[in-house]
Amino acid sequence: MPNAFFQVPYPENEPVLSYGPGSPEREAQLAEYERMLNQEPVSVPMVIGGRNVTTDDHRPLTPPHDHQRVIGHAHFGTADHVRAAIDAALEARTGWAALSWEQRASIFLRAAEMLAGPWRTRINAATMLGQGKNLHQAEIDAACEFIDFLRFNCHFAQEIYAQQPESAPGIWNRLEYRALEGFVFAITPFNFTAIAGNLPISAALMGNVVVWKPSDEQIYSAHVIMELLHEAGLPEGVINLVTVDGPVAGDVVFNHPDFSGLHFTGSTGVFRHLWKTIGENIANYKTYPRIVGETGGKDFILAHRSANADEVVTGIVRGAFEFQGQKCSAASRVYLPDNLWPEIQEKLVAEVGTLKVGTPGDPTNFVGAVISRRSFDKIQGYIDFARNSDDAEILCGGGCDDSVGYFVEPTVVLAKTPHFKTMEEEIFGPVVTLYVYPADDFDAALEMVDSTSEYALTGAVFARERYAIDDAMRALENAAGNFYINDKPTGAVVGQQPFGGARGSGTNDKAGSYLNLLRWVSPRTIKETLTPPRNYRYPFHQN
Ligand code: NAD
């Protein structure tokens, strides 16, 4: 242990590079994208106890925008591999949990610097290829947000460890922030490379050992993350990557007595199923597992009659269609006052008509392909439902083409009833539904926004009138964990807007803040009496 209190470098958000025409970063990034697209398909092993593990069950990895092109193969495992990953994690636990926190933090700070420098183009290209993000979307996720998670979490860990109790005279009280007793299971979604990295890493930073199951659609960049962590010096067995079908992994993990925490991000239905399974097994665990889940959303934009139409239109276009609407925070239900409707309709339809759809290799494209066949079919189903309904009208978009990639045009639906299906259910694609309300009944609109969906992740209010903003903040207090005023409801930045929602959207443990890290420690209180009494009698016993 060091003979000093060290301080991690004060974190700052990683600057987002512009990738403007002629910029060196644009050339370098596009060159790396092309190189990775055209190289020999890569082989992606599991990583268990620091060893690369291959199997006979290798499945093709294909870009969503070019689904016949094979860029790699992932080796899928069985229940035995999950058991081996748990054993490897538990074996690594003693050394890792006992390592001083500064040593652990150093590894992740080093990973952040590598990502900011030589690994930046590689992680971005992997995210463009495997998840279909354009230059900017890859940059703000795989590079900047991931770097921010790494740097800020080290800072937050330091702040947590510094929190100590008071001590009465003659006593020294201490609080020690132990790692959880057992292993943490991280299950991650396809849509953010940063989240995929952060879920296992945040638990590991606090001294835990982890079994990580990535989404089948994010395996390509998960592979880069494991190589990065290896290069940064993460000891063997601390984070073990298993590419296994979800239920196979769950069946082993949730029946294991040393299971001590679930760090999940994904859909609400899956999370509820996992929580139920854990509940059914609760008596079998050595300790009560921590359950952290950030899940789905049906995120809203509400415009007041005093709003500026251009600001609302920009909020809708960026909020609903960036990364094809596949952000948990994406705007997908919009409430517009009838006084602004004619102007907003005209401008919105015109703007959406300018959005270019295509591959990430062409930086002029705003919208790319959606992640998978399953996703494409689901989104198309919602569009067809709207097209065939008397209660809705498609204002623009609606085209779907899966001949080369899973492309869905940015689509704007106008609903005639506020409870139309696409106003209520998470679609997770480039589809936004609008509802026009009477401008002079803002209170009714607030009630509608609050009660329409089971989710409560993000939401935005556009208004110039301050009383309206105040009313909205009050009425929608529980409708969104991340509430925006005159801004789109996406794009939360680590250290600035801690992220997460309640109701059906998750446990609201706020990724990118100290609140999340607190879930991965089990404090031990230590009381030391400096001059212990040597006689059991209290003064009141004396005559
Ligand atoms: P998903 O629920 O389909 O999958 C998430 C993960 O769970 C994947 O790794 C998947 O393989 C795994 N999984 C599925 N069934 C499982 C089972 N029975 N046992 C164990 N693991 C299982 O989600 P997705 O399509 O990857 O991501 C999109 C969803 O994630 C959306 O609902 C979105 O709103 C949500 N999301 C939420 C946040 C947030 O912070 N609230 C952030 C990103 C994504």
Can you describe what's shown?
With 543 residues, this protein is of the alpha/beta class. The chain folds into 2 domains: 40-295 and 506-526, Aldehyde Dehydrogenase, Chain A, domain 1; 299-485, 3-Layer(aba) Sandwich (Aldehyde Dehydrogenase, Chain A, domain 2). The protein has 16 helices and 23 strands. It has a 7-stranded mixed sheet, sandwiched between helices. A 5-stranded parallel sheet has the order 9-8-7-10-11, with helices on both faces. It has a 3-stranded mixed sheet with strand order 1-5-4, with helices on one face. Helix 2 packs across helix 8, helix 4 (120-131) crosses helix 5 (135-162) and helix 4 packs antiparallel against helix 7 (219-232). The longest helix is centred in the N-terminal third of the chain and has 28 residues, at 135-162. The protein is globular and about 90 Å long. It starts with 23 loop residues before the first helix and ends in a 14-residue tail after the last strand. The structure holds nicotinamide-adenine-dinucleotide. Residues 187-192, 195, 213-216, 246-247, 249-250, 265-267, 270, 273-274, 294-297, 328, 426, 428, 457, 499-500, 505-506 line the site of nicotinamide-adenine-dinucleotide.
